[in-house]
Amino acid sequence: xxxxxxxxxxxxxxxxxxxxxxxxxxxxxxxxxxxxxxxxxxxxxxxxxxxxxxxxxxxxxxxxxxxxxxxxxxxxxxxxxxxxxxxxxxxxxxxxxxxxxxxxxxxxxxxxxxxxxxxxxxxxxxxxxxxxxxxxxxxxxxxxxxxxxxxxxxxxxxxxxxxxxxxxxxxxxxxxxxxxxxxxxxxxxxxxxxxxxxxxxxxxxxxxxxxxxxxxxxxxxxxxxxxxxxxxxxxxxxxxxxxxxxxxxxxxxxxxxxxxxxxxxxxxxxxxxx
Length: 274
What we know:
The protein has about 270 residues and is an alpha/beta fold. Helix content is about 35%, strand content about 15%. The protein has helices at about 5-20, 25-30, 55-60, 70-75, 75-80, 90-95, 100-120, 140-145, 160-170, 190, 210-215, 245-250; strands spanning about 35-40, 65, 85, 125-130, 155, 180-185, 200, 225-230, 240-245, 260-265. The strands form two sheets. A five-stranded parallel β-sheet has the order 3-2-4-1-5. Strands 6-7-10-8-9 form a five-stranded mixed β-sheet. A hairpin with an 8-residue loop joins strand 8 (about 225-230) and strand 9 (about 240-245). The termini are far apart. About 30% of the residues are buried.
């Protein structure tokens, strides 16, 4: 091979090395040409650093963003210079829970549809931001069905379920008597409890007293129970441990914020490694 050929190969290798050595950043991602797209993005649950790198990179590429006021405040540095709009919780309430103001929900859905479709038609990327993981427990999954023709993409993230598991330091499928766990919003508890498996309650639609009342016919009073409040928030996260027979007495004077309820013997099982 002649000198010119060797020089060309050396130049190509040097260029490749420079590209590989250059760190990836949201700023670089924003500079990369993109195609119009709708994303439903989890920003994680709890403290802002529970957001994933994939979520950050997706937000950086978006020109139009839908989010709550809390998310707008907590992630202001990522949202600077973007076109911002509020999401509509009442759409979820009306069309999933069958409660609330139908006419208002319909108008909000039409308003959002106009913004999203115009943005995509203009070649823009739209990101709908949700706390926690929207596929586990969240009010914005309706975007996926409503805009199904746009082939929207979901960016998964840390749920309050994941954060609470970490706080408990337990494997939820590692119980002594069961290797399964049921996630529920508190509906149909009597039916679900017949399986006598571990359970995790998202308590937005029910309360601890009702949970205990529904479980007592199916589980022994000594069944371990844990209440995890403010999962994912380092400064305010709290765990109250007890049993099905004691947890109401332990929490009767508590003013619990958003919390999850865990039920099952995985809460006390140990590996007994000697």
